[in-house]
Automatic annotation (TrEMBL):
This is VOC family protein. Keywords: Metal-binding. GO terms for molecular function: metal ion binding. CDD domains: VOC_Bs_YwkD_like. It comes from the Bacteria. Pfam families: Glyoxalase. Residues 6-129 form the VOC domain. PANTHER family: FOSFOMYCIN RESISTANCE PROTEIN FOSX, LYASE, PUTATIVE-RELATED-RELATED. InterPro entries: Fosfomycin_Res_Enzymes, Glyas_Bleomycin-R_OHBP_Dase, Glyas_Fos-R_dOase_dom, VOC_core, YwkD-like_dom. The lineage of its organism: Bacteria, Pseudomonadati, Pseudomonadota, Gammaproteobacteria, Enterobacterales. Coiled coil: none annotated.
Length: 129
């Protein structure tokens, strides 16, 4: 069996790079580690970290097609972040203008969770630590 150490990063293609960079950094609290404009591709690439850990590669590509599937389709369903208090984190998102689903309880774990989306509709989740 292949021995994987950890998830290295998650790549996200944004329709509006500055808007998505602001969302992930200013609202969700990621830090921009590095940013480069790739002229040959007319594309920005930003490396985002959470608590010093590199996690997201944020890209812009001209004329990238929109996401065409819903979270229940095959493939990546959502990206989840753990938080200590889901209700409090949800309230902070709502205060920043981010619409969230009501907080629910996972029937298997008893943990609280909620869903919201990034500026391009990418499904994100807050899950009780």
């Amino acid at each position: 069996m292949l021995k994987l150490n950890q998830v290295h990063h998650i790549a996200i293609i944004a329709s509006d790079y500055p808007r998505s960079k602001a969302f992930y950094c200013d609202i969700l609290g990621f830090t921009l580690l590095d940013e480069v404009y790739r002229e040959a591709r007319d594309s920005w690439k930003g490396d985002l970290a959470l608590h010093g850990q590199y996690l997201i590669e944020l890209f812009s590509f001209p004329a990238a097609p929109a996401r065409i599937t819903q979270p229940e389709a095959q493939g990546l369903r959502h990206l989840a972040f753990s938080v200590d208090d889901v209700a409090s984190a949800r309230a902070q998102l709502e205060a920043s203008g981010v619409s969230c689903e009501p907080v629910r309880v996972d029937p298997l774990t008893g943990k609280h969770f909620t869903f919201f989306t990034d500026p391009d509709g990418l499904p994100l989740e807050l899950y009780q630590a």
